[in-house]
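Weekly modeling sync, notes
Attendees: S.R. (lead), two postdocs, one rotation student

Agenda item 3: backlog of single-chain predictions. S.R. asked that every request posted to the team notebook include the full sequence so nobody has to chase files. The rotation student volunteered to paste the first one in as an example of the format we agreed on. Action items at the bottom.

Example entry:
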Amino acid sequence: MGPNGEFYCVAITDRSKAQSFITNNNRGDVVANSGDYRNMFPPESDFYTDFELAFEEFNALGKNDAWCHAMSDVAEKHVMGITIMKAESDRQFKSKHVKRDSDGKYVPAECA
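Predicted structure, as returned to the notebook:
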């Protein structure tokens, strides 16, 4: 749950991809969230760099939505086999995705 009562969900969408990701990345690159959005990944990792770029791009959406879209970008780019969802005002969870426009800028996208 976010600080303003938002509900988020991480769902495994492809078990074999998720298992493969865990098996291949079980070297400390992914660490437990300490409550600081920027402490989820070690600074020297590709995960950190990708998360930082996306998080900064989406910062105008607010910290929680920026985190949600940045994590979605990292999950898609690194083929984690998961999706990040947020409960919208109609109480339906919607998957968050990231697209890039023709200039390479991040564009938030939502799937039902």
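Discussion: group reviewed the output briefly. Helices lie at 15-24, 46-57, 63-77.
Action items: rotation student to repeat for the remaining queue; S.R. to check formatting next week.
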